[in-house]
Amino acid sequence: MLECKNLTCVREQRVLFDNLSFTLSPGEILHVEGPNGVGKTSLFRLLVGLSSPYAGDIYWLQNNISTVRESYYQHLLYLGHKSGLKPELTAIENLQYFQSLHNPNVELDVWETLTLVGLAGYETIPVAQLSAGQQRRVALARMWFSDCPLWILDEPFTAIDKSGVKVIENLLVKHAENNGMVIISTHQDLNVPDTLYKRLMLEKPIAEAFYV
Ligand SMILES: Nc1ncnc2c1ncn2[C@@H]1O[C@H](COP(=O)(O)OP(=O)(O)OP(=O)(O)O)[C@@H](O)[C@H]1O
Prior knowledge:
This is Cytochrome c biogenesis heme-transporting ATPase CcmA. Helix content is 28%, strand content 25%.
């Protein structure tokens, strides 16, 4: 279980959110919503330990993540705004590289996975030559190779068309049904069963509040 207690995030002396608490249990998909600039990415960076909260704590399996970083990262798949792909490598090479590095024990065919994400016929083209949506699909294909219970996905649907969104939604549902956990930000509706779905709405920044 992931537990956030009284998180406060400050950027450039501006409070983005204050006293934010929530939990995420196995089998849950948490949809983080809110207007541009409200602090969704900043929250995700706290959750993955890329920055530290001004106040508050984040617990993974009841341990503060700052004290169990190594084991936390073994349980975490984070897909942020940047694709993390190597542009000079092909889609296949990127996935093979990811698989060998992170999940050598997951037995999955990289060619089949690229077909699943709609990239049949584009497997051997350098990623730099693919469209924005196709590059995003290669990046998202890494989810199929992950055996991590916790997925944190920052706007994964950017540049993805409707059919691609459907494929990803199905994967999120399957992950949650297998007791996985998902935290996802997206500006669009998420079509997943109510039984798996939780929502966290970040409100407008507290413009008048300043922390020093
Ligand atoms: N490293 C940083 N230094 C200074 N300000 C930052 C930093 N990171 C984010 N901010 C500011 O914090 C605010 C929230 O940014 P963030 O990217 O978290 O918003 P968001 O909710 O993800 O927005 P969007 O929906 O547009 O992606 C913005 O005003 C941004 O300028």
